[in-house]
Design a protein that fits this description.
The chain has 440 residues and is mostly helical. The protein folds into 2 domains: 193 residues, Growth Hormone, Chain: A; 210 residues, Growth Hormone, Chain: A. The chain has 14 helices and 2 strands, in the order ααααααααααααααββ.
């Protein structure tokens, strides 16, 4: 038996990891059902793309605001109780929404408040869920545990979208709210049974030095920003990645649901399948892109991904032009195929960009770099959601998709002209033959 198989066998016999893994699947599957269903419900309730997009943005803003403190909590409090507590709170919030829905008191304002609370819980939950893994899995099995968690997350995203589309029609928003509440409560019960050593805090008495620590934190952050700007390649790609998030993410999360619900009057399942196809394409494209990175220059893959996504946006313009002839069913089939290809193209952009980020960042500044990257990406998500919510109702979607395609072509032109400079610390790109694309 090879070491990879041994690692997975060890995970299957590890009671704590099995409890953790089962809790994550139950919770994530319920959450994905909710994400799809609540977007569709808001469109049914308001026929407003803005309210649907604003809900997504409010959730992202809550995560962005609290995530740094969530990491601090995960280092000072028992991680299993952080996970169990936040899942418990989410379950209670969802039960409250369910009761309000049953009493016909559920309004868009209540949904905004609930979305913010759920986002805060997610921001506190995620760092603890990531940080607990080395405490319940032996060091040699941590990579296998991470891979298993990522595979489960991808599965839950795809299955949750398809099931959400099917179940919304059968049991409505009330049934899905109850399912998600139960899934969070069940996950909390499982997480509470995990056995893990208590977190040993090394920051006792830090409050006495709070003022000095804050000054040092600000100084360190400024130093990290200066270091990022020294590497012109990374700084340029950081801006490109931010613009990419701003342009591309609203297609799947805002425009597609609005198109199928409001403009086509399609069923939830007809909208869910194309959305799920996007994630299936991302998974397949990530595998292929990771392999091609050993033989192709990263910037070539990035440019190819941007070009393919621009072509997809123009294809959507054409599909909208004949949507009255195709009908909802054929539009769903066409978008399913197109979105699968677009998902793979997105992976061709994302995988090499993040490989370059990892390869060219130095260990001293790595944490600050990823903090800035996460903040920029989340801010772009929020801005993209708000803009998409307004544009979908103010302009024909064909114009919006054409504008997205033009923006992606501008990014493509910039990447094509990119000539990576030597990275600080000796990290460089290899640009010849079949040599690995990245080398330290």
């Amino acid at each position: 038996m090879d070491t990879h198989a041994m690692a997975h066998d060890g995970l299957r016999t590890n009671r704590n990891f099995c409890m953790y893994f089962a809790a994550r699947i139950v919770s994530q599957l319920g959450d994905q059902l909710y994400v799809f269903a609540i977007s569709w419900f808001v469109l049914d309730l308001t026929k407003s793309s803005f309210h649907m997009a604003a809900l997504l943005a409010v959730n992202s803003l809550a995560v962005m605001a609290v995530a740094p403190f969530g990491g601090l909590i995960a280092d000072r409090v028992s991680r299993k109780w952080v996970m169990a507590g936040t899942d418990l709170i989410q379950g209670v919030v969802l039960l409250a929404i369910f009761l309000l829905q049953q009493g016909h008191f559920l309004s868009i304002g209540v949904l905004y408040a609930a979305t913010a609370l759920l986002g805060l819980c997610s921001a506190v939950f995620s760092p603890a869920a990531s940080a607990i893994v080395p405490g319940i899995v032996e060091g040699t099995r941590v990579p296998a545990a991470v891979a298993a968690g990522q595979a489960a997350s991808n599965f839950c995203t795809i299955a949750g979208m398809v099931l959400g589309g099917a179940l919304y029609r059968l049991i409505g928003i009330s049934g899905i709210l109850m399912l998600n509440a139960v899934s969070n409560l069940a996950a909390a019960a499982m997480e509470a049974r995990i056995r893990v050593a208590p977190v040993v805090s090394r920051t006792a008495g830090a409050g006495v030095r709070a003022s000095g620590e804050l000054k040092r934190f600000v100084a360190d952050l400024k130093g990290g920003l200066r270091q990022m700007r020294l590497d012109r390649t990374v700084f340029f790609l950081l801006l490109v990645n931010t613009a990419f998030t701003l342009a591309v993410l609203p297609i799947a999360m805002v425009y597609m649901p609005y198109l199928f619900n409001v403009l086509l009057g399609a069923s939830p399942l007809q909208a869910a399948v194309p959305q799920a196809a996007t994630w299936a394409g991302i998974i397949a494209g990530s595998i292929v892109a990771a392999r091609l990175l050993h033989r192709r220059r990263p910037e070539a893959l990035i440019a190819a991904g941007l070009a393919a996504l621009a072509a997809h946006a123009i294809l959507l313009v054409g599909l909208l032009g004949v949507s009255h002839l195709l009908g909802a069913a054929w539009m769903s089939a066409a978008c399913t195929l197109g979105n699968a290809i677009a998902g793979a193209a997105g992976a061709f952009f994302v995988v090499p960009v993040y490989a370059l980020f990892h390869a060219r960042s130095t260990d001293e500044f790595r944490g600050r770099f990823w903090g800035v990257e996460s903040s920029l990406r989340t801010a772009a998500m929020c801005a993209g959601y708000f803009a998409a919510g307004i544009l979908a109702q103010r302009l024909p979607l064909g114009f919006v998709f054409a504008g997205t395609g033009v923006m992606l072509l501008f990014l493509f032109a910039g990447v094509v002209r990119l000539r990576p400079a030597p990275a600080p610390g000796g990290v460089r790109l290899v640009r010849s033959g079949r040599d690995p694309a990245l080398r330290l």
